[in-house]
Design goal:
Layout: H1 2-23, H2 25-35, H3 42-75, H4 77-83, H5 86-104, H6 106-110, E1 113-116, E2 121-124, H7 130-163, H8 176-208, H9 210-215, H10 218-242, H11 244-269
Antiparallel strand pairs: 1-2
Helix pairs in contact: 1-3, 1-5, 1-10, 3-4, 3-5, 3-7, 3-8, 7-8, 8-10, 10-11
Length: about 270
């Protein structure tokens, strides 16, 4: 359980990455939608685009960190306590965010953070530089997805071996709560990959063939864009559905809100 708690540092970090877009960029997007265009100015556009990049890349890097953590915890349990001590875990989380900032920073030099009227957002414009777009897709999506896929495949193989008693000596590490937590993070990964794949594939198409990019229907790009950013809202739902502790907290919060609402209604009626 101690090892699981260390791994939760990446989950908290992932939650912070999801919250980044809700605090600043999303309110500006809503303002742009209501006014039919961007009215916040150039500086807010750059800050908004930068924070969106932090959220997106921070999410995939944290998901990668979670997968590596789960892989070490389940498949290399003897080395886990040394690899993921409390100090090392905090260093890994800090490294994730340092790499995230370094990954987003080049957007300012390439000047790829621009307002896109199709989605009412200041975001990464795929047509600014073909080489940079390919690099972004490979380094920020394809490579992390490959690492996460490898880690989860190895975990699934071990789980199957344990259930078939091929490796009975590892059963002590594969407790029911470990499998539930693994399943939760696996679903988070799958949803992230599904939600972000269309937009990244469109980016590759634009990079390799600018003419093809001009022929991509606006509705398809818009749908893929909002599908990608909707992913930030899904993680909390997944935690609530698959994690018992989250379900209990959600119920407690809802009951508190309901009680406050009932008290307020009684006072108004009096």
């Amino acid at each position: 359980m101690i090892g699981m708690k260390r791994g939760n540092a990446f989950v908290v970090s992932l939650a912070l990455a999801d919250l980044v877009v809700a605090v600043y960029p999303y309110p500006l997007v809503l303002t742009a939608i209501f006014h039919g265009g961007w009215i916040a100015g150039y500086m807010h556009c750059q800050i908004s685009g930068f924070l969106v990049g932090l959220s997106v890349i921070g999410s995939i890097f944290n998901i990668t960190g979670i997968a590596i953590n789960r892989y070490c915890y389940i498949c290399h349990s003897m080395k886990y306590d040394k690899l993921f001590s409390n100090r090392n875990t905090m260093c890994y989380v800090s490294l994730v965010w340092a790499l995230t900032v370094l990954a987003v920073a080049p957007n300012w030099f390439v000047e790829s953070l621009q307002y896109d009227p199709r989605v009412y957002s200041c975001t990464f414009v795929q047509s600014v530089s073909s080489l940079y777009t390919v690099t972004v897709v490979v380094v920020h999506f394809i490579l992390p997805i490959g690492i996460v896929t490898y880690c989860y495949l190895r975990i699934w193989i071990l789980v199957i071996q344990v259930r078939r008693r091929v490796k009975p000596d590892t059963r002590a590490k594969l407790m029911p709560h470990d499998l539930r937590n693994f399943l939760t993070m696996f679903v988070v990964f799958v949803l992230f990959a599904v939600c972000w794949a269309p937009l990244n594939f469109i980016g590759l198409a634009v990079a390799f063939s600018p003419r093809l990019g001009l022929n991509i229907p606006e509705w398809l790009f818009t749908a893929s864009y909002f599908m990608a950013y909707f992913n930030s809202c899904l993680n909390a739902v997944i935690y609530g559905l698959l994690n018992q502790n989250f379900r209990k907290e959600y119920k407690r919060i809802i009951m508190i809100i309901f009680k406050i609402h009932c008290k307020g209604s009684r006072r108004d009626s009096e």
